[in-house]
Design brief:
Length: about 375
């Protein structure tokens, strides 16, 4: 731990980076996967399980928490860490992505965005300054700038407009954040699928000398090859001595290929959302536990996993729980999925330290390609 926010690049293997973020509430080993705790809970999980599974940091959502229970209330209750019993670092997103998804309920201008709550229809205004204020009330450790994230495909002129506004908002967020020892504010590179705009955005943010940089707008409907090509263009522009965070991504395959390009941090709802719908991620790829082939299979999802949900419960039981819509089914599969994501990150970090990341990547993808064990 450190009293200041520091990032140390410890090793590289190709473009893949092994690092460590140190801050007062703990150390974050990178590449890192951050489980999403949207409203102060990682859905269907005890936070003790999340921690024991290997997570060094979780994510909270500014938009949802400002609406319920309210940022001021969270502050009165001692901050988000105290409220949810999570002593380690928390990253909060700015709310920009959620506001984008409310396109029919919002009005955007230079000052910020006015939107209606999806809960009760009440009206709210979020400016760059208010976003940083809310994240401060939540007492988050890594705070994100407010940005305008637009869905792809979009017209280049519209992408440029949103990117330029996001740059101006980043500067306002930097001023509002000020100097907060031990904490950090990250900027967000935008620019859609336009290489020149991505480079301009990254260059502009670099001038602000922020503690870290995120790449946004690449989990909004574009194909994987577009995401990877934009990363390949953008990441070399960003400072090598600062952490790089790819927002809202993704599948294990997305993460493995993005680490190969130099990404350090990820978040995604996919492991828990998929778990609640009967989909498991394993060493052998994806397993749809709803399928009838599992109904009488007493073997576990993965006998080699360190996670009890994967190792100790039969496929037959998991199949029964999911098909019966029992909450426990979603809980066990979410536990399995988050554990697999963290095991993947651990394997990635180890392979970079040993200088064999490309071999690890190939071996992992080969195992996925083999598919699940044969049915009985």
């Amino acid at each position: 731990m450190s009293e200041q926010f520091t990032f140390t690049l410890k090793a590289t293997s190709g473009k893949a980076r092994l690092g460590e973020i140190s801050m007062p509430r703990g150390t974050i080993r990178t590449p890192a996967f951050m489980p999403v705790g949207t409203v102060g809970t990682v859905k269907a999980m005890y936070l003790d399980q999340v921690r024991e599974g290997g997570a060094d940091i979780i994510l909270g959502n500014t938009y949802h928490l400002m609406l319920r229970p309210g940022a001021e209330r969270v502050a009165r209750l001692g901050g988000l860490h105290e409220l949810i019993r999570w002593p380690q670092p928390i990253l909060t997103d700015s709310g920009g992505f959620q506001v984008m998804s409310l396109s029919g309920l919002r009005k955007l201008d230079e000052q910020g965005v006015t939107f209606k709550s999806h809960i009760d229809g009440s009206s709210h205004h979020m400016s760059p300054e208010r976003s940083i204020e809310i994240q401060g009330l939540l007492d988050s450790d890594i705070q994100m700038q407010l940005d305008e994230c637009i869905a792809l495909p979009a017209e280049p002129r519209e992408i440029e407009r949103a990117m330029e506004m996001s740059l101006r908002w980043a500067e306002r967020c930097r001023v509002a954040f000020g100097e907060q020892p031990g904490k950090a504010m990250f900027g967000i590179v935008q620019g859609g699928d336009q290489p020149a705009l991505r480079i301009r955005s990254a260059e502009g943010l670099k001038q602000l000398d922020l503690k870290g940089y995120a790449v946004g707008g690449l989990a909004v409907g574009e194909p994987q090859d577009v995401m990877l090509s934009m990363l390949d263009i953008t990441l070399p522009v960003l400072p090598t001595e600062k952490p790089r965070y790819l927002m809202g991504v993704g599948t294990p395959d997305d993460m493995l290929k993005s680490v190969a390009l130099g990404v350090d941090m990820f978040d995604c709802v996919m492991p828990t959302r998929s778990g609640r719908h009967g989909l498991a991620f394993t060493r052998r790829g994806k397993v749809n536990i709803r399928n009838a082939r599992h109904a009488e299979d007493m073997r576990p999802l993965d006998e080699q996993s360190s996670c009890p949900a994967a190792r100790d419960y039969s496929r037959a039981y998991l199949h029964h729980l999911v098909r019966s819509n029992e909450a426990l089914g979603g809980m066990l599969l979410s536990w399995n999925n988050l554990s697999y994501y963290q095991e993947l990150m651990q394997g990635i970090r180890k392979s970079i330290a040993e200088g064999r990341f490309e071999d690890f990547k190939a071996e992992t993808m080969e195992m996925w390609a083999r598919g699940d064990i044969d049915p009985r």
